[in-house]
Amino acid sequence: MEEGTLKSPSHCDSTDYGDSDPFQWDTREDCEVRQILDRVADKWSLLVIALLERRTLRFTELRNEIDGISQRMLTVTLRQLERDGLVERTVYPVVPPRVEYALTDLGCTLHETIKALVTWTEKHQDEIAAARAAYDRRMATV
Amino acid sequence: MEEGTLKSPSHCDSTDYGDSDPFQWDTREDCEVRQILDRVADKWSLLVIALLERRTLRFTELRNEIDGISQRMLTVTLRQLERDGLVERTVYPVVPPRVEYALTDLGCTLHETIKALVTWTEKHQDEIAAARAAYDRRMATV
DNA sequence: CGGCATCCGTGCCGATACTG
DNA sequence: CAGTATCGGCACGGATGCCG
């Protein structure tokens, strides 16, 4: 799953990056990458994509799975993801209505990346908790 | 406060998510992973971490690099990242003041993941743009 | 230069009611 | 069941002013 990610051997403090820097990117607000990142990095989007990877889900199933999301936000999030071509919406013309959501192929590729993010979070949550505790202690002693 | 967060009785704290279900995680709001994800997925945090990977930067350098960020939000973002142990803040007692920000080791590991996210976005931005155009066209015809 | 405090507008988001 | 429509609170974030 983890495609041999480009390791950072020592370039954390390296200042010698050329124009070929794989991470030299446009930071302007109107940059399309930033627009998409804002969408992708959305908290609800992350959760929806994560859940849909496991299997196709109906609207209420998603709402029940995601604690704290309102019907409105789930609808909005799903519409955005559908518009971006990450999620496919299928309506079955039955009574009562049945609507299923599934990841598209594009959504599946994104899920690989998101999974890495979640995995990182799970792996390092203890370090972050410790860092927060240490920080709060430092601030308190002042 | 800093006491170990209430662990979920079920599967949340299980680090063995790799085999049977690679993406079965706790979606409850009080789940620590979700809290951290919200922070990590923040749009400004992403940009700051991305820029700091290249080299250490001063406050104003960051502000100039990140188009559209206000001084307030840069300060808030940097404080959060510092508190989470992802960014290190160094103050040089000179006049005028000089403050430098750098990624910690933990921050470097996160950057690997973020880079994957940005790379994905760059790689698929055309597909997303096409999907959006198609979606908008469908909606317009109705 | 690199903050922090304060004020205040905007828009996000939840709650509610209604439809097919 | 799966939405849309509408309203309103409040938190997020911008602008400004002051300080070490």
Automatic annotation (TrEMBL), chains A, B:
A GO molecular function held by the record: DNA binding
Species, as recorded: Phytohabitans flavus
Keywords, in A-Z order: DNA-binding, Transcription, Transcription regulation
Matches recorded under Gene3D superfamilies: Winged helix-like DNA-binding domain superfamily/Winged helix DNA-binding domain (1.10.10.10)
InterPro entries the record matches: HTH_HxlR, WH-like_DNA-bd_sf, WH_DNA-bd_sf
Domain HTH hxlR-type: 31-129
Protein name: Transcriptional regulator
Keyword DNA-binding: yes
Keyword set includes DNA-binding: yes
Superkingdom to which the source organism belongs: Bacteria
PROSITE patterns: HTH_HXLR
